[in-house]
Here is the input.
Amino acid sequence: MSAIHVSPAAAPAPVIVIRGRKVVGGVCEGEALVTRDRISGWGGIDPRTGSVIETRHELKGQSFAGKVLVFPGAKGSSGWSAMFHMTRLLNSAPAAFLFNEMTTKMALGAVVTHAPAMTDFDRDPLDCIETGDWVRVDADAGVVEITKRA
Amino acid sequence: MHLSDEEKAMYDGRDGPAVQKAMDLLVRYGEALDAERLVETNNVCATITSTTPFQRDFAQAKGGMDAVFSEFSLDSQEVVAIPKFKTFTSHLQLGFDPGQPERMGVSEETVRFYEKSERHAAGLGAQIMNTCTPYQLGNIPTRGEHCAWMESSAVIYCNSVLGARTNTEGRESCGAAMLTGRIPYWGYHLPDHRLATHVVELDVEIESVQDWGLLGYFIGEHVQERVPVVHSRRGIARVPNLPRLKHFGAAASSSGGVEMYHIVGVTPEALTLEQALGGQAPREVLRYGEADRRRTYEKLNTTATSADIQYVMLGCPHYTIEQIWEAAQLLEGRKVHPDCELWIFTPRAIKALADRNGYTRIIEEAGGILMSDSCSAMSRAVPKGTRTVALDSAKQAHYLPAILGIQAWFGTTSECIDAACTGRWTGGLQ
Here is the structure.
C-alpha cells in the first residue's frame, strides 16, 4: 500500500464522494490509474503483467495490476473478456473498474474478472479522479470515495 | 433481471450443475448490463478449443477438458461435467493452422493438445468451421434471428448484411449460451438500438474491394461504436458483393467499434434513409469525398517506408472462393520471388473446393501456400525475417504493425500479388 503523506500541520486531505451503479459487487480500495483512452483487451494488454501494450496508448507500458482502473470503456476485439479473465488467473487484474460507457465487452470483462465495477456516475470519474489518488470503491452501496493525492 | 419459469428451473439446477453455472453467469452478465431479461438463441459462434500452453497446463492440473470449459467458457471455478450443447454452435478461427505447425512456429505438443480439445468440442456439438466468416459455411442466420456471436467482423456482417441480431459476445457468454440457449436481451437485440445515428454522404463512387475497405476504415474512426448509414444521392452505382461488405465491415470494426451499419438501398433495414434513421434526425452528417479517401489510404500506409517485401498475406477476413479464384488467375504462370512468401487464408472447407478446382495447385506451383483456421494477426506468425508485409485488408494493416512491430503496405489484391512475385511494393492509390 503506498502511503499518503500528510504533514501534521496540513488539513486532512479532502474526500470527494461520487455515486454510480453497481456492475459487479464488492468493496475494495487502491491507488487510481486514470486514462481518457479506451482500452483494448486482445492485442491491447499483456495479462502476464497487467500492462497496456497498445502503440500510442496513454498508458502504454504501465500496469493496472491491483489499481483502481478509471477509463472511458472497452474497445476492440471480442477477446476482451478472455484477456481480462486471464489477468485474474495470473494475479494481474485491476482492483476495480470505474468506467463510463457500457458495452457487452465491458460488462462481460468486468464480470469474469470478479473485480468490483461501477458505471453511470453522477459525476464523471475522469474529471474528479487523477492517477495516484486513493480510491475506495463500495460497488454494493454504489459509492466511490476519492482521497486526493497530497 | 426477469427470468421465465424455464430459465428459473435452469438457474435452480434442474438441468445439472453445468447449466446452473451457465445461468449464473448469464444472470451476473445480464445484471451488469442492466438488461431486463434474456432472449432465446439457437445460433452461437465462438472460440471453444484450447491453443495455449497455459490452457494445457490448466487442464493437466485441474481436471482435463471439463476444467478448461468450466473456467474459460463458463467462469466457473468449480469443475462441472459439460453436457452436449443445446444450440447450433460454430467454431471461430484459432491461434494457428493445425495443418502447418512448423510454418506457424507451434510445437507438436501444442497441436496434439489442440486436436484433443477439438475432438472434445466436436463431441459436444461444435461445428469445427474454424473461420472468422461462418456465414461462408452455411451459417447464414435469417433476418431478425437472435444470435450470440463473437468476432467483430462476423458480428457486423450478421447485424448489417443479414439483418440478424447479435451483440459482440465473448468466450464466456457464448459458452453459457451454448448450454442454455439464452443470451441477454440488450443492445442490438432491441429494434431501437439498430437505428442509424450518423449519416455518411458519399461524394465519390465506391466500387472496388479496396474502396469499400477505405470507406469502412474512415467510418469506424469517425463514428466509433455508433451506427452509421451510408447514403449516396445518386444511389449506390454498383451493389457491393460479399467480399466488398466483408472487407468494409472488418475495416469499420477495426478502426472503430462499429457492430451495425446500414447502406441505403442495399442492407435489409435501410430500404430508405428514413427507415434506417427510424424517422429521427441524425446526430451528425459526415461527407466522404476523394480527399477523405486519399487521407484514409495514407493513414493505412503510415507504417511503411521500405519497398522491399518479404511477406504477402491475403485472406483477412478469410477469403471467399471467388477471391481465391481471382488470386489464382493473377498468379498463374508466375513465380513468387525467392525473398518473399505468399500465404493465403481461407476456411478449410473452402480450401477443399479450391483443391478440387485446381486453384491450390496453381498457388503452390507459383510458390505460394493456401492455409486455413487462422491468420497472421491471430497466430502472430509470419515468415522468418519479415520486416515489411503487403496486405489487401485494412483490418490486417491496422493490427499487424501494432502486434508484430513490422511495416505494412495496404493495397489491392493485384498489387499484393505483384509484390509477391517481384519482392517490391509498387502500389499506389488509383
Observations:
- Chain A touches chain B through 29 residues (CB under 8 Å).
